[in-house]
Amino acid sequence: MDTSKLYIDGAWVEPVSLHMRDLVNPATEEVVAQVAMGAATDVDRAVAAARRAFVDYSMTSVGTRLELIGRIIAGFEARADDLARAVTTEMGSPITFSHDVQVRRTLENMQSFIPVLESYQFEYLTASTLIRREPIGVCGLISPWNWPLAAFATKLIPALAAGCTAIFKPSEFSPLSALVMAEVLHDAGVPGGVVNIVNGEGSTVGEAMALHPGIDMMSFTGSLRAGILVARAAAGTVKRVVQELGGKSANVILPGADLERAVPAGVLRCFSNTGQSCQAPSRMLVHRSQRDEAVALAERTVQERIRIGDPNAPRTSMGPLASTMQFDRVQGLIRKGIDEGATLVAGGTGHPEGFDRGYFVRPTVFADVTPDMTIAKEEVFGPVLSIMTYETDEQAVEIANGTIYGLAAYVQTDDIERGRKVAARLQAGRVYFNETPTLYAAVERTAPFGGYKQSGNGRQQGTFGLEEFLEIKAVLGYQID
Hints:
Layout: E1 6-8, E2 11-13, E3 20-25, E4 30-36, H1 40-57, H2 62-78, H3 80-91, H4 95-119, E5 123-126, E6 129-135, E7 138-142, H5 150-162, E8 165-169, H6 176-187, E9 195-197, H7 202-211, E10 217-221, H8 224-235, E11 240-244, E12 250-253, H9 259-271, E13 283-287, H10 291-305, H11 324-339, E14 343-346, E15 364-367, H12 374-377, E16 384-390, H13 393-401, E17 405-406, E18 408-412, H14 416-425, E19 430-433, H15 439-442, E20 452-453, E21 456-457, H16 462-467, E22 470-475
Parallel strand pairs: 7-8, 7-10, 8-9, 10-11, 12-13, 12-18, 13-16, 15-16, 18-19
Antiparallel strand pairs: 1-2, 3-4, 5-6, 6-22, 11-21, 14-15, 17-20
């Protein structure tokens, strides 16, 4: 793979001003590649190519788009091993997780758009007015480093299904999988300019995309801080901005729930992807009377079911954090939890025993966490679980909603009606009911995904995700008797 090129207008091209960035393997702290970083001038080239391509691609039939997406999906599946290895190398995801979740989940999400596109009604008549859904135009897509492939399923595929063209910027911390995807797109016969991939840093390429008058929409997944910057930059051209940002998800375990199932499932879900997931259930809410049992189960789960190790080893369940920046941030927040009086149940600061190299951290569980503590308010983005207690359902809802975020929430109960009442009051774009460790495989792929409050705006996946890339046109007097 040539990591010194960008993919623009259907060809591999050198950046206008070549600047290489070291890519560090987070498990070894060794430089494994140097990747070209683009600049604003490269964004200009990509936008020009996308605008030219939009003229023809926006007019293609649904059948033509279905065939193209089908070829992309087939190419993605054929390169599954390469994609999994790339993700493991660039962000430290255990190879089994890279295969079974990072790649497989992306593939399933891509496949889920086929029936959505096949059945979608792009136009219909009401009285004498024709309502049309048309592609919004050239889309700027920015993906996060923690789920580097997910953006291809939740952003690129619906953009192509809608008839849009795109400029895609992967995270500068996880560019390898995007380069493999560029090869997949090229081999699938995506017309030149329809998809352009410009590696670069957020402060250069990302900002240039948000500011660019030739880009009609920005779809961004990442941190709250970066999302605010994208929205501000995009405001000058009044382009549509769809964002999926941070989260501080509550896992409400109601009295009567099977703690032997609910607590381990919550711990494992919180710690999956080394805790680097925006919808990780990082706050576990248990009834005060069940505090001791829940804490003991959480501690036992960490001891018995979390295997830290080489991400390339098949039995490893937790790899390192993705970067030294993440490592330092998580260490600081663990220290905050200790200093502010939370009870340390498992883990703590420093490297796990036997790991003196790599960005490995100790899976950490705190108990007796109160809503005013930093670890209860800030998104840690690491394997840190905060166990909190409540007295009534009303108090549980109040604690769960007491955050600036609203991406996801979880409810565990044996009383379905009671659980549904709690779920209805949770301020979150998704509520997972009676979570299990296998939820990654069981979740409905067309269900909308997005957040309330400062977790973002807009929705991804299914019909809702497709419609984010469409404009609405009303043709009045279309049919007059």
